[in-house]
């Protein structure tokens, strides 16, 4: 049977400080990228154009 022991650390939570942190508003702006549907549509058009212009695979010839 395995036994697990927990050791307490010196970390204590102050209720007042914790409450202050929890009530702070989030940042209004973020550096996260925002997906733009118009850009995705343009990317699909470029891929479709590349597919249409790509060379076809050669066909095998029958040998007699």
Protein architecture, described:
With 64 residues, this protein is mainly alpha-helical. The protein is 41% helix and 0% strand. The chain contains 2 helices and no strands. It has helices at residues 15-23, 37-53. The protein is elongated.
For this entry, give a set of tags.
64 residues; mainly alpha; 41% helix; 0% strand; elongated
Short description:
With about 60 residues, the chain is mostly helical.
Shape: elongated
Radius of gyration: 31 Å
Alpha-carbon distance between the two ends: 76 Å
Overall average residue pLDDT: 76
Beta-strand portion reads under 5%
Helix/strand/pairing class, anyone? mainly alpha
- Helix percent reads 40-55%
Low-confidence stretches: none
Q: How many DSSP helices? A: 2
The overall strand count is 0
Major pleated sheet: none
What order do the helices and strands follow?
A: HH
Summarize the helices and strands and which ones pair or pack.
Layout: H1 15-23, H2 37-53
């Amino acid at each position: 049977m395995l036994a697990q022991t927990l050791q307490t650390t010196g970390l204590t939570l102050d209720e007042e400080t914790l409450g202050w942190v929890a009530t702070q508003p989030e940042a209004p702006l973020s550096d996260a990228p925002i997906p733009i549907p118009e850009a995705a549509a343009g990317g699909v058009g470029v891929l479709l154009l590349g597919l249409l212009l790509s060379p076809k695979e050669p066909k095998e010839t029958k040998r007699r």
